[in-house]
Automatic annotation (TrEMBL):
The lineage of its organism: Bacteria, Pseudomonadati, Pseudomonadota, Alphaproteobacteria, Hyphomicrobiales. It comes from Allorhizobium taibaishanense. This is Sensor histidine kinase. One of its GO terms (biological process) is tetrapyrrole metabolic process. InterPro entries: TspO/MBR-related_sf, TspO_MBR. It is found in: Membrane. GO terms for molecular function: kinase activity. Belongs to the TspO/BZRP family.
Length: 150
């Protein structure tokens, strides 16, 4: 029961904060006016993808919290989470593709470092972060393309 409660708290907190930050930093006219690369996904895709990813990120965080609270993995989890929550205000809030890139590249590095840290002791947390790493890798390329095109 305690594990389920920890999972729920992490998943609700991460998803809730992520949604609130997203809603307070909507793309708007500035983003609509940017020149987009051919691989830019449709706008409707971002909300559902991020919601699923936030649930997975929360579950991974809860698992590491229970197993290795004072570990390098937990520090990396919190570090990437801070950068994750800073990206929308940097990119959309400040309307800056460059600032977004400055945030997303270290975020990707921390996500990959987290994957490396948990690979041997928590396969579920590892599995939760693989789609997240893939999406943020793609988002980094997209952010870079938007920076270069605009």
């Amino acid at each position: 029961m305690r594990n389920a409660l920890t999972n729920l708290i992490f998943m609700i907190a991460v998803t809730g904060i992520g949604i609130l930050i997203g809603l307070s930093n909507l793309p708007g006219d500035w983003y609509d006016g940017l020149v987009k690369p051919s691989f830019n996904p449709p706008a409707w895709l971002f909300g559902p993808v991020w919601t699923v990813l936030y649930v997975l990120i929360g579950l991974a965080g809860a698992r590491i919290w229970r197993r290795a609270r004072r570990s390098k993995a937990m520090t990396l989890w919190f570090g990437q989470m801070i950068l994750n929550f800073l990206w929308s205000p940097a990119f959309f809030g400040q309307q800056s593709t460059g600032l977004g890139l400055i945030v997303i590249l270290p975020m990707l590095a921390l996500i990959l470092a987290f994957l490396w840290q948990v690979r041997r002791f928590d396969k579920v947390a590892l599995a939760c972060f693989i789609p997240y790493a893939a999406w943020v890798g793609f988002a980094s390329v997209l952010n870079g393309a938007l920076f270069l095109l605009n």
